[in-house]
Input
Amino acid sequence: MSTAVRFSVIVTNYNYGAFIDEAIDGVLAQTRPAHQLIVVDDGSTDGSPERLAERYGQDPRVTLLLGENGGQLAAFQRGLAVAGGDVVCFLDADDCWRPEHLARLGELFDARRDIDFAFTDVELFDRQVGRMCYADRALDLGYTAVSTYMLTHWYGAPTSAIALRIDWARRTLDLPASLSTSWRLSADNCLVFGTSILGGRKYFLPTGTVRYRIHGANGWWSHRTPANEYLNRFRSRGLIEHYARTVGLDARCVELAKHEFKTKPAPTMREARRYAGLVRLRQSGWLRRTEQALSILWSAWRRRGTLPVELRGLG
Output
């Protein structure tokens, strides 16, 4: 009988003293208790360190790490250095979880030892209400290195909706100084891109348990300009190339696109179209590439029962 996985939760805070109690108390109230709760204060100047020490300093369930400001990536790394669980979850101090969050994730990681990285849907609240969801159902995404490398596709969610095996977290956050500076903030990209490129298996699990607080200009969409979009993609490509070099991956990986697609037990039609486009980039002849693209669309239709637009009229 397999042993239940142990969760290490890392809460990172920078000047979110107005919200952090709710984040921490939400972790402590989980129906499946965390093995370890680590709170990293990244040099806050709003009184957070004093508040945390007073409220949680004597709580044996909470490990407090108070220090100088280094950015989100450094806070992740500081927390990870003392983490001792099997799976690590990161939680931004202005977000919070419903009580069953770790229980839902635990069911997946306990049952599927081959899953390395899981992410959930996100409920927006406070100044904006809504839901961000990768798909309309749970999805075993299989392996995603080729799609991520060739298309910079982001198989993930914001920080508070991510969970991954602790060894994978350590691998993705082991970065050279040049990249550590570039990714001082938005470090969840390192977890998302790194796990994909380095060969982790991913799973989307909608839970309805992650609450993402909108309280001003903290949403990435508030900074979406053509220049920022370009710079974000430019930086992401550099990060992806770093991980790719460590495993010897380059553009020739497109030859494996069809094989990677087969690792997905029940892909969406959107995913099938993505991979059909990838196989068209192969170096084989036009007819062969077209046949493979159609076979991907056909196999996805057979599993889903919905005839894709690309195949209508071809019967």
Notes: The mean pLDDT is 92.
